[in-house]
Design brief:
Length: about 190
Amino acid sequence: MNKKRNDKSDVDDVRPQPVFFTPDRILAWTGIGLAAAAAFFPWYVFFNEEKFGIRVAGGDRTRDLPHTGPREVFSVSPMAMTNRNKEDTPPPAELPDMLTTATVSAGGREKQNNLAAGVEDQPFPGQTSFRLLHVSNGRALIEDGSGMYMVRVGSTLPDNAMLTRIEQRNGEWLIETSSGKTYRPEK
């Protein structure tokens, strides 16, 4: 019996072939090419140094000035002109000694000592006041217009006095300063 065969091999499968040059492939191959060029170009420069080296201009290597005659002066600044009349020039003033010796006369030393002694007695400009906030573990917390400070005996206070004593009297803490002032916590 002759049967009719269904042979699909006779019928060609027509599927569209993918395009080789797609934008993604072009971009990828361009990146690969740039990467290869960036990797190999430094080696090319290294092995062909004569093509890429710094060229020094040839010439005379001496420091001698060229042999030319003097040039004419076209304009002269008034400050550059010299006075040719010796009678018109005033005598030069005595120049100060530029060497520092750091010596002071005895009179200057007395004046300096008097000024230094006066500085110690000089009060601070403007009376700075502070207040006692809290006392704990041998330290006191004080406050003035610029902030809060933790101080202890021997500390310098905002009024430039030294803290001399922290003690408790009648159940109330107080601090005494080297200037003789006593501060109690405000209630």
